[in-house]
Amino acid sequence: MEITTIGIDLAKNVFQVHGVNKHGKVVLRKQLRREQIATFFANLHPCLIGMEACGSAHYWARKLQALGHTVKLMAPQFVKPYVKSNKNDAADAEAICEAVSRPSMRFVPVKNIEQQSVLSLHRVRQGFVKARTAQANQIRGLLGEFGIVVPQGIAYITQRVPELIEDASNALPGSFRLLINRLLEHLELLHRQVDEIEAVIKTWHRDNEASQRLEKVPGIGPLTATALVATIGDARNFDNGRQLAAWLGLVPRQHSSGGKQNLLGMSKRGDAYLRTMLIHGARSVIYRATQKADPNNWVFKITARRNKNVAAVALANKMARTVWALLVHDRSFQPGYAPRAA
Q: Which Pfam families does the record associate with it (predicted)?
């Protein structure tokens, strides 16, 4: 009987495969090793293949799409309810096969190689930024143990600590001075790594027309623009801008029942990195708007009514919807744009 739908439980070496026919009858339960995957699916008629969006999922999706199959990725939390009993590889593959055939299932767009490459730069840069912050905090903490307090802000570390180390009046041991010098060298290395990766990202940004259009939106710079373009891919995967904002977790959580609407804080679903960058960009726009104090400015009016944190999330939501419109309609940003009446 011809297989129409397959669920694959991905792993490093051993993959579990579960297949059904058009009547939903199980016709395939099989374990495959990594090197057997391409050969096995090359000999199958094109079918629908479901996988969880996890490590290497986008690679295998592209690989199987090249063989003529239709591949759909799903968030693991949407697959979990279909696991019938105890968790094991066979049960997971069966649940994936069941979930991918549901008409109401939400799917993750498959990323191409260029998207993954740019996002890798962002992830590595983010790791270096975290390591740089941790290193600066360690230097500040060690100096604090000797009664030397450095003001907050990473810039003060590089400005003031070398002078403190050279100051003979603070009675610091020689071995400790050498240790702080070594940590300062490591901090400077992390600075260079961040700057070099940012330069590569900005080079890609200058060569990408969509990223340059997004940069015109207030609160979005080259880093946020490149991350948005690489993560979203084809914005037509979303029906409207509200779906994109919800996908980024910039909408309220709900706990509603009996017709009574109860809205909570941010859902925080989706990509935390993108959401953070959009909110930080919104904070910068709010800061400028409060300085100008224009009573006709939408941002200034919402900050007058709401807490600044709430206003920042609201503005980030609006920015996400603007991004969707620019990408889908292939437009450039126009301040004060008003949609044409129907």
A: DEDD_Tnp_IS110, Transposase_20
